[in-house]
Every structure is written in structure tokens, then in C-alpha cells.
Design brief:
CATH architecture of the largest domain: 3-Layer(aba) Sandwich
CATH topology of the largest domain: Rossmann fold
Number of domains: 3
Radius of gyration: 26 Å
Strand content: 15-25%
Helix content: 40-55%
Structural class: alpha/beta
Shape: elongated
Largest sheet: 5 strands, antiparallel
Number of helices: 16
Length: 384
Amino acid sequence: MTGEPALPLAGFSIAVTAARRREELAILLERRGATVLLAPAIRIVPLADDADLLQATKGCLAAPLDAVVATTGIGFRGWMEAAEGWGLGERLVAHLRGARLLARGPKARGAIRAAGLVEAWSPASESSSEVLDHLLSQELAGHRIAVQLHGEPLPDFVEALRVAEADVVEVPVYRWAPPQDARPLRRLVDLVADRQVDAVAFTSAPAVASLLRAAQEKCREQDLLRAFGGEVLPACVGPVTAGPLERVGIRTIQPDRARLGGLARALVESLPARARVLPVGGHRLEIRGHAVLVDGMLRPVPPASMAVLRALSREAGRVLSRADLLAWMPGGEAVNEHAVEMTVTRLRTALGAPHLVQTVVKRGYRLAFDPERQADSCVDRTDR
């Protein structure tokens, strides 16, 4: 039996919704064997010439600051670069030296140091909530605190500081906007709703919100949510990113640390565990999104043949008629029962072992299922 040894994500298709560093994430996934679909859900709008950022910067310079919260590395660097462009760079850096600088994570910490400044504190969790708890543990009445925003407002964070009677200056360094070309995003809505991708990777909460909004506009929100609750795996870089999905009852997978490499590893751990594994005809079949591992060797399978294989695997060992299989096949590819015969022929060829799919005369087809080997060597891990 021929084939290629399988990489951990071989046979799975993963959509990447990131605007920034999407190529980096795509490479991480492709190196692990995944087929990657790029569908940016948002774009970053630079604010170097933005009046709101200039006004916020002047507001910071108007009086001494007691604390400054840097939420992202790219955001803090962008702020420094914009200030330099306005001729305010040296003045802003000197002004921030008199404040207590809080970095939400290591990237923000690195940006602070790159500006010639030193952070006073950073949480181990890289969580905005821990930064907020740290601030609220102190007397804040009358304190001036600048909060560098990271693509969207932080209303709960800012409101909690204001309730504590702090004077808060919001610094909108960059913001999110819909993608200029929305066609890939709209197509992704249909692919998810129709279970044509295996996972969607998210690196920001605005990207999640943008996909949900696009699904609403196409009247497919419930289809999309049902897919995320079952066959399609939503993978988020961290809890903040997962928030919009968690709030509508969708469970996500997340890495231990909010890093692109961690997100890729989380997908490597989770997607293969969702595959259906069966002992068939003396071989081990692992049925993935658009391919099958036969004894660990990758065997790509055409979409219609994969649909037939999934139907047969759900009823392992049971005979399914041509009419039964016809109902499982994608529309347009199966117009009559003869199409089922051709699809089964292609499936046998793709698997490289015709005996794995048996013909039962005048009744239909079944897998050459080995139930006695099920408990010993294989576990049926999902109902995909």
C-alpha cells in the first residue's frame, strides 16, 4: 500500500482569520501538514495621522501621569512612532519616565524597553484582568492613568478605574475595521456552516466578532454556531479572543500561553483526537477532514468519496444502500445511483486497497469492519 507518512495535521483544513502575522501562523500550520485557508476577518487601521491619537497624546502631556498601562507591544511601539512623527517623541518618553509603567505581557514589556523606559510591573498571566486587579489594590482617587488600547475599547477596564475615582486617558493607538475585501470572510461563513473546514484559528476578539457579524448578515449565524458546537473546532489564542464565542455558549480550545506557536500546538493536540479511527480489512483507518490515514500513511480522498466513507464509517460493518449513500453525497456530484457506484470506485482507488469497501450484491456497500480488533487497537473518538 502506497502513501506518504502523515504529519500531525495532514488531512485537516484550517481557516486563519488573522489580519496581522497571518502568514506566520499559516506557515506554522502548513509545516505540520494542514491545508490553510486565509480569510482575514479584520484589518488594522493605522493611526499615525489620527486626530484622536494626537489628542490623547497631548492629554497625557498636559499633566503628570501616575501610571501607564501598555496592553500590546505593537500598540505601544505605534504610539511612540506616531509621537516621533509629530515631533513629540522625546517629550513623551521623558514624560512617561515619571509614571509607573505596567506591561500586560512580554511583548508590551519589550516595547517599553525599546523606547528606553523600564516597566514597574507585569502580570505572570498576561491578563488585562490581573493588571486591573493590581491597580485596584491601590488608592487611585485623583491618580492620572493612561491606558493604551489594543484595537478596541476596554470599557469594563476603564470604567472600573473611573469608579475608583482615577482620571483615565484612553490612548487609541490602532483600531480594527472590516476587511477591505469581504469575499473571503463571507465564503468562510459558508464553509464553516457547511462543515467544509475542520477548524478556525482566531488571534483576536474583533476577528471573532467580525465572523459572527458576517454570519448574521448572511442569515447563517445559527448554522455557524451549530458547526462550532460540533464538527468545526474553534481555536483561540487566549481567553480574551475566545470571549465572544464563550459568551454565546461555544467552547473553544486555547494554548496555555497566548502565542502563535502555542495555538498551533493546541491544534496539533486537538484535531487528530477528533478523527474517527476504525479497524477495517486488517488495516487501521483514521478518517480526517479531507484525507484518510491508512496504517499511518496519508491517502487524499475526493470530497464525494469522503462523504461516502463517512457515511459507511458511521454504520461500520452495516450495509448501506445506494439510496442511503446518495443522501450523504454533495449536491451536484450525485445525480443518480450510478454516481454512487463511480464514487465508491474512486474511494477504493484513493484508499489504495479495494477490499476495504465491500460490495453486497443487490443491497449496497459496507466497510470490511473488524469489530474484534476495535477494543484492542482502535478507539472511535468522535462522531464526525
